[in-house]
Amino acid sequence: MAQVIVNGIVSAALIAPPAVAFSMLFGILRFPNFAIGGYITVGVFAAYAMNVPLALPFWVAALGATLAGAVIVWISDQIIFRPMRTSAPVTLLVVSIALTFVLEHSVRLIFGPDVKGFNLPLERPITLGQIHITRSQIHLIGTALFIIVFTHLLLTRTRTGRAMRAMADNPELAEVRGIRSTLIRVVATLYCGALLGLSGVSAGFDLAIEPLLGWSLTIPIIAAAILGGIGSVYGAMLGAVLVGLAEEFSTLILPSSYKIAVGFGIIAMLLLLRPQGLLGQPEIKK
Amino acid sequence: MSNAILRAEGVYSGYGRGDIISDVNISVDRASITTIIGPNGAGKSTFIKTVAGVVRRRAGRILIDGYDVSGMSPSDVSRHAVAYVPQERNIFRSLTVMENLEMGAWIEPRKFDSRVARVLDLFPALNALKVVRAGNLSGGQRQMVAFGMALMVEPKLLLLDEPSAGLSPVMVEQMFAVIQQVRESGIAIMMVEQNAIQALRVSDVGAVMSAGRVAMIGSASELLGDREVAELYLGTRT
Ligand SMILES: Nc1ncnc2c1ncn2[C@@H]1O[C@H](COP(=O)(O)OP(=O)(O)OP(=O)(O)O)[C@@H](O)[C@H]1O
Ligand SMILES: [Mg+2]
Fold first, then answer.
1. Is residue B137 situated within a structural domain?
2. Among 1.10.3470, 1.10.3120, 1.10.287, 2.40.160, what is the CATH number of A2-121+147-273?
3. Do A165 and B88 touch (CB under 8 A)?
4. Which residues pair with B28 in a beta bridge?
5. How much is the pTM?
6. What is the reported pLDDT for B236?
7. A92-150, pLDDT tens digit by residue?
8. Where are the domains of chain A?
9. Cβ–Cβ of B78/A178 closer than 8 Å?
10. For position B30, what pLDDT does the model report?
11. Span A182-206, mean pLDDT?
12. Residue B159, domain member (yes or no)
């Protein structure tokens, strides 16, 4: 039982940062960007490339993945999504799914389809009573907590962060008050890209590194974001904890290959019962 | 230098096919109040949005303090000391009251402290609500935040779209009192109002819009005294 909760928290730590990024991107770009899976894959393979073939220290690889994530999200926004910003959100959603396939297949083309791993010293799980947890899982939870606190401070304590919230809340009014949407968009894509690249590194710690890694995380991430109320950053954090726990508890009664169905189940149920999510406010349209 | 802070000359604009407003000519003097009245759907909001740059003008010129701002984006128009308060969705609901006011001084953050003191003087009720999320406020408090945020711009021209909408009769009185106070401080105001009589009483100039055109423009007292205007738009008979 306690082990299930620990595993759930590890899953949550894996899902929370990209769910926050997904929610922030939605707030600023105004469409659900399903390319997050592709961005995460790019991040994990950037880290792998630097860590294994280039034999750089792991922290350098993690930093490189963060940068790679920032650059890929920013570039794809500049050349694809920003020019299409007047299109319907559904169109952009479809384009983002296509982009995730393009990114994934590019990675497969370069690195091949087989499973890889980081070059890290082998470690034995730490055992506390009946609970097993590896040091890298502790790192993973620590990283997620750091990202959440950092994001909170960014959004509340910096002028740019507050402008990002203003723009997500009411883009027309933000523009009327003189906030330049292009600038905020650049900051948001770079920051969310960094989060997604780093999420790739965390995922590579805990899961097998292969091109489909990002895609396999996409559903739980989006489930967490919707659960918390899409566009609400704090909701995404809460949603991640709930999805992580739900996934792990499902393994008590279902074969673990059904874990992915939990995400789908949560999305379906929410769309029926509370489309605005747990913390989201119902959208008031004129 | 002319005394006009706003000159709209032959302005056309709209959303999809066809123009919503046609050949609108209005000029607003410094430190004066102009009220636009007219039936629902006449294009009053569209005109005010066009001045603010939210809706692109299709023809004609819009001059702010002599500068041609026609075709500029809303964020560029706001850099000419124009503060627009929309009819709906005029606050940031998920931001606190102070954060809303901060967005008002976005262009000149260093002036935040001095301006916020003045805005809180004008709306003392906001003092106790500084860290409350604006979305949790009452309708009247939200109007104060929206108005306060616009004053944080320290505008030369304030564009208000139905500032008294949804307010109680007492609050409506207070709102118009504040509008007059703002004018005393040298700011020109162009507003759209449904409380036509009260609005015209505090105004210098009144305009009637109908079907996208300025049907009539004159001094506010002239409009208040006009039989036809009274019957059609003021709901009174003389
Ligand atoms: N965003 C929009 N897209 C398309 N058409 C619009 C839009 N906003 C307004 N219109 C149309 O433009 C016309 C004028 O609307 P506008 O809001 O300017 O009127 P108004 O005089 O402000 O009315 P009210 O007194 O009801 O606020 C209406 O026919 C309306 O349907
Ligand atoms: Mg209107």
1. no
2. 1.10.3470
3. no
4. B6
5. 0.91
6. 58
7. 999 999 999 999 999 999 998 889 888 887 777 888 888 888 888 898 999 999 999 99
8. 2-121+147-273
9. yes
10. 95
11. 95
12. no
Instruction: Domain count for chain B, please give it.
Output: 1
- How would you class A71 by CB atoms within 10 Å of its CB: exposed for 0-12, middle for 13-18, buried for 19 or more? middle
A155 inside 8 A of chain B by CB: no
Ligand with minimal distance to B209 CA: 1
Tell whether B18 lies on the interface with A, counting CB pairs under 8 A.
no
Question: Would you tell me how many other CB atoms lie within 10 Å of the CB of residue A110?
Answer: 10
- Rounded CA gap, B147 and B160, in Å? 8
Structural contact between residues A246 and A201, judged by C-beta atoms closer than 8 angstroms: no
CB atoms within 10 A of CB A249: 16
Contact A172 B89 (CB under 8 A): yes
The answer to whether residue B170 sits within a structural domain is no
Pocket of ligand 1 (CB under 6 A): B 15, 20, 38, 40-46, 87
Chain A to chain B, count of Cβ pairs less than 8 Å apart? Answer: 72
- Whether B91 contacts chain A with CB within 8 A: yes
Please identify, by atom number, the ligand 1 atom nearest to the C-alpha of residue B16.
4
The Cα of A20 is separated from the nearest Cα of chain B by a number of Å equal to 17
Which alpha helices (H) appear in B7-96, and where do they start and end? 44-52, 74-78
Average predicted confidence (pLDDT) for chain B: 93
Mean pLDDT for chain A? 89
Supply the range of the domain harboring residue B28. 1-81+189-238
CATH classification of the domain holding B55: 3.40.50.300
Q: Chain A contact for B88, CB < 8 A?
A: yes
CA dist A73 and A80 (Å) reads: 10
User: Ligand 1: distance of its center to the CA of B169 in Å?
Assistant: 26
Asked if A38 contacts A193 with a C-beta cutoff of 8 angstroms, the reply is no
pLDDT at B81 over 80: yes
Residue B44 Cα: closest atom of ligand 1:
21
CA angle in degrees (0–180, nearest 5) for B120-B124-B129: 85
- Ligand 1 atom closest to B209 (CA): 21
Dist CA A68 CA A65 (whole Å): 5
Q: Which of residues 159-178 of A touch B (CB under 8 A)?
A: 159, 162-163, 165-166, 168-170, 172-178
- ipTM for the predicted complex: 0.93
- Asked whether residue B21 is domain-assigned, the answer is yes
Answer whether B149's CB lies under 8 Å from B96's CB: no
The H or E element containing residue B139 is helix B139-151
Question: In angstroms, how far is CA A23 from the centroid of its own chain?
Answer: 9
Closest protein CA for atom 29 of ligand 1: B41
- Per-residue pLDDT tens for A213-264? 999 899 999 999 988 887 777 888 889 999 999 888 888 888 777 777 877 7
CB-based burial label for A186 (10 Å; 0-12, 13-18, 19+): middle
User: Does A279 touch chain B if contact means CB atoms closer than 8 Å?
Assistant: no
